[in-house]
Amino acid sequence: MSVDLDGVYRAEYGRCVATLTRLLGDIGLAEEAVQDAFAVAVQKWEEALPANPGAWIVTTARNRAIDRLRRESTREARHAQALLLHQSDEPEEVGPVRDDQLRLIFTCCHPALSPLAQTALTLRLLGGLEVPEIARAYLVPEATISQRIVRAKKKIRDAGIPYRVPEAAELPDRLAPVLTVLYLVFNEGYTSTSGELVRTDLCAEAVRLARALAELMPDEPEVLGLLALLLLTEARRPARVGPSGELVVLAEQDRSLWNRALIAEGHELVRRCLRRNQPGPYQLQAAINAVHTDGEATDWAQVLALYDQLLQHAPTPIVALNRAVAVAEVHGPAMALATIEDLDLPGYHLLPATRADLLARLGRTADAAAAYDEAIELAKNPTERAFLKGRRATLA
């Protein structure tokens, strides 16, 4: 095949599922219709893409859904078919959420579902993420994620949870999982589970949805904090990959390649958050990234102070691991190593990678090599594996 169908799938899947869910009012049927449409596309797009692949998929999926409903004998199926036949492809949107994908995120984040089911289902539907990618984000077995997604779809169907726009008063109660979804979609884009290191489509979509969320809920500090965090991280992306596709760590990046417009916008959002004086995890992470992008060198003492605050708000092993990097810069690698010795992050390659770097700085070459070997074994992305292999080679 001469066309990049995989690329179209990654870029358009979430958008198409969201649009079809609005048209059909049924998440499960929408996902099946979109998958059917992509199966048709495999045969139809052998030589060239249509002018608007997303619109082609939506139209084909809608027609496939109508065909399926025609074969159904239930009254509900006939009613749904009649609605589809008489509505335009772009019916008028109502309610406080105007973006299809953002609306689907809020819908999937229904309080009747467990937090993990909410975010896992949304990442699958909106981000088009596969089960291994979602499992990596949560550091849990793939079977756990598969079961949660299946159960979530079944609960939505059996409980008759409607696809509808939440009322404005309901939005704050669903905000936490929505923020988590956008954060995880961006993270998967910034460091993908497989293939190239960065998936720019996911990064761009997460930023777009974060902007839409900030317009919808401008008085929520954590919403502004998340947007600032994504912008300040995205600003550094052009310098994160070298000429040959190799990973370039923050300390070695060419800062002239950073996007100064995004940095300025992110800094302004951080200042707005500071004026509100209602700190939360996303705001504190944004503040840390603001320090990293302020001037020609990082003020590590300030970064460590912010991580101390973040650890109080989010006392997780990953926050503690990230804090150790700042501890090493301020107090030295020995103290940093002591702070991570008892961390338990099974399957997370950055824990042994961080330990390896600290051990190497302490001159404990054999221990560092063993830690690098563990990190290389756990790392899924080939670019990250190549980086770790290069660092291990320098030990000799």
Describe the protein:
- With 396 residues, the protein is mostly helical.
- Among the domains are: 1-90, Rna Polymerase Sigma Factor, Chain: A, CATH 1.10.1740; 315-394, Tetratricopeptide repeat domain (Serine Threonine Protein Phosphatase 5, Tetratricopeptide repeat, Alpha Horseshoe), CATH 1.25.40.10.
- Helix content is 68%, strand content 0%.
- The chain is built from 19 helices and no strands.
- It has helices at 5-24, 27-44, 53-71, 75-86, 100-108, 115-126, 131-138, 142-158, 175-190, 200-216, 221-235, 260-276, 281-292, 300-313, 317-331, 333-340, 350-361, 365-378, 382-394.
- The longest helix is centred in the N-terminal third of the chain and has 20 residues, at 5-24.
- The protein is globular and about 70 Å long.
- Mean pLDDT is 88; it is low at 89-95.
Task: Provide keyphrases for this structure.
396 residues; mainly alpha; Rna Polymerase Sigma Factor, Chain: A; Serine Threonine Protein Phosphatase 5, Tetratricopeptide repeat; 19 helices
